[in-house]
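Board notes, transcribed. Complex of a protein with iron/sulfur cluster.
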Amino acid sequence: MKKHAIIPVFISHRGCPNDCVFCNQKKITARSGDVTTEDVRNTIEEHLSTISRMNLETVEIAFFGGSFTGIPMEEQQAFLAIAKEYKDAGKVDAIHLSTRPDYINREILDNLKAYSVDVIELGVQSLDDKVLELSGRGHNAAIVYESAALIKEYGFTLGIQLMIGLPGDSLESCIFSAEETVKIGPQIARLYPTVVIEDTALWQQYQDGTYTPLAEEEAVERTKAMYRILDDAGINIIRVGLKSSDIISDQPAFHPAFRQLVEGRIAREDLESQINDLYPGLDDLFDDRWKFCPLALFISNEKCYNNMFGHKGCNRDYFSSKYPRLNIRYRKDTDQGLSLRDNEYKVIDLGPAYLVDTDKI
Ligand code: SF4
């Protein structure tokens, strides 16, 4: 299968005037130091030397760090000139960057166009003004709609990053942010559960007891709700989990397989809803001791096959303990002559198959 390769270039925002409660830019900057044009070139060269174009569909240079267009214009141009050089030479296919919604205007976008930038991701975090204010973002939701519209008008690929569990956040505000994101219509999205990093305002709030981080289960539930909304709208969710800056912090507070927890939960719910439709009153079928148990096929495409089992088989264990009278077999769509899209799950009833002693289950 053809894959995409990303060459990540971390550009910290020195002297960022904002005070996002979750951000520890001093720590990040201290570890990464000041990035020079030479560093950028070396990073690109190092990655290119290990990348074989044979099995790659695209190679992207991605400037991460949150606020690329907030750094001085001359520095943006110096970094972009290097990226463009590699793109013009056919060594990379796309230039990708992330920035804040309030660091977008026509002058900035004209410059990004001149340097052949392809993808702009906005660190939106939430579209709820209360959450934005409590998180110290320094802008409201209105600016997100304006900058996103401008980015689309220029023809860039638009990405939107949302966070789960910020101060003032709730399941409802998460759903609201996801629904508003669908209205904005980005091509790509990322979902990040909030991580409390030491030496941040959020860390202090946590110490004071004024902020309670989300428990993992609640983070999975909220992320799942947002994922469904974005996925149903055809938005490509390219990441679910920690931000690169969080990984630098050495403080991962959530499961490293967070995406699989979310996608596995979606698989479980969809499969269970079909079981309930296919086998209403399953237990009532077993009023005599010896009965034939129904055989059910759980089917997905190859990419989502592991989601049906869940992380470390948690879904398989869940179904076998909750539905002991159902014989479940897991299958890939192609084996059944089907073609299912990602995150689409199907249950097929094959009728009574096994004679069991119902006293023993
Ligand atoms: S997350 Fe907020 S405070 Fe941190 S660098 Fe980005 S804009 Fe600045």
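The domain at 3-256 is CATH 3.20.20.70 (TIM Barrel). The radius of gyration is 24 Å.
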